[in-house]
C-alpha cells in the first residue's frame, strides 16, 4: 500500500535530522491492520457475549415467566380474568394466552365502543374462527366407533336412577336440538344422533390441539382427527333439497320457509356445502352452551333443595300454558338466571378479533390478531351490580308479586334485585348473550329448551348429588366445563 511521502527539513547543526519515529501504520501497515481487526473482533465478541448474556437473562426473567403465565391461562382462565378485573378498577386490562392477546373492557363506555366498532375491524366471526378452527374441524369429521352399545336410550336417559348428569343432559339437548333444527326424521335417527353428539366433543378437542400446535403441523393432526362424515353426509341431502326448493320458489312455486335459508344472502346464494357448514357451526354453539348451562342448573337444584317445591308448584300451575305460548314460569326463569350468574359456562363474552389495528378512545391499542372482550363472569359477580354477589338467591330476578307466599323458616325467597329482569334480557350487567348488535339471536330458543328440560325434571323427579362436596367442574381457557363423572340420583316423584 503506498504511504504518503513526508519532506525532510535541515536542522541548524547541519545534520540531517533524524527522521521522526514513524507511526505504526507506516512501519508495519499489515501488522497494524491485524491488531485493529483483533481489537474490533475482541470488542464485538465481548459485546455479543454481553448481548447474548443479557438476552438470556431477560429471556429467563421476562419471557419465561410471561410464557409460563400464558400457559397457566389455559388451566386457570376464569381465575386470571377475575384477578385482572379486581385489580383494574374498571380500566382495560390484558391477558396473554399462548395463541392470542386478550384485552378485557368492562366500563359501559368501552363496552359500547366495542359494540359500535365496525365488523371489518373487530370481528365476532374472526374470533369464532380462531376459536373453532373450522378449516380443520368442519370439513371432515372424526369417526370413532362409539362402543356401539351406548347408542340406545336418548329417550330413556332419565329413567336411569344414578345418572352422570352432564352426559345425560348433553344427550337430551342433542335430541331436542336435532328435532328442532333438522326435523323429526333426522332427530330420531339414532346413528345421526350419536355422530352429532360426538361431534361437539371432537370439535372442542381438535380446535384446541390445532390452536396450540405450530401452524405447519395443524393439518397433519387435523387429518388424523377427521374421518367420520356421518353428519356431513346426513345433512348434505337436506341442504341440497332446500337449495332446490329455493330455485323452485324463484319460479313462483310455493315452498316451505326454512330459517337457515332465510338468513342466507340473497345476492350470492349459499351452496348446500355452505349451508351445512352454517348449520354445523350453530349446532356446535347451541349444544355446548345449552347442555352445560342446564347441567349447572340441575346441580344447583340439588344443592338448594328448598327451591324444588315452589318451582314444582309453579310448573304444575303454568307448564301447560308455557308449552303453548313459550311465555311464563318466572320463578324458574329467575332460578336459571341465578345459576348461570354464579356458574357461568363462559368467563369471556363479546369476543371480537382485530382484523385491523384498533384504538379505544382512551388509547388502549389492539394489534391485528388481538381480541377485545368483556369479563362476563366477573361483571356478574360484582357488588356494583348484584347485592350479596356471591350468595345464591334463586328468585332474586323475579318480580315481588311472583314470589312464593310461604316458605320454611330460614328460606330467603324474598331477596330480590332492585330491578326485576328476565333470563333473555341483555344489559350492561348481563353479558351472557353478548351485547348490542350481535347479542345471541338463539337466546329465546335456548331459554325455551332450558325451561322444557328443567320443568320435566322438576315435575317428575326429586334429585340429589351423590357427592355434594366433590368438585363439579374444571376450567379450560375461559370456559367452565361440568365434570362427566358427577352423579345425580333422580327419583320419580309420583305417577
Ligand atoms: C345457553 C345457550 C347460549 C348461550 C350462552 C349463547 C351465547 C352467545 C353469545 C355470547 C354470542 C356472541 C354475542 C356477542 O359476541 O355479542 C352468541 C352469538 C350467537 N348465538 Fe348464541 N348462545 C346460546 C345458544 C344459542 C342457540 C341455541 C343458538 C341457535 C339456535 C344460538 C345462535 C347464535 C348465533 C347465530 C350467534 C351469532 C350472532 C351474530 O353473528 O350476530 N345461540 N351466542
UniProtKB/TrEMBL annotation:
SUPFAM superfamilies: Cytochrome P450 (SSF48264)
Cofactor: heme
Recorded superkingdom: Eukaryota
GO molecular function, one term: iron ion binding
Main location: membrane
Subcellular locations according to the entry: Membrane
Binding site for heme: 440
Entry keywords, A to Z: Heme, Iron, Membrane, Metal-binding, Monooxygenase, Oxidoreductase, Transmembrane, Transmembrane helix
InterPro entries: Cyt_P450, Cyt_P450_E_grp-IV, Cyt_P450_sf
GO cellular component terms listed in the entry, alphabetical order: membrane
UniProt key word Repressor: no
Family per record: Belongs to the cytochrome P450 family.
Name the record gives this protein: Cytochrome P450
Protein species of origin: Xylaria flabelliformis
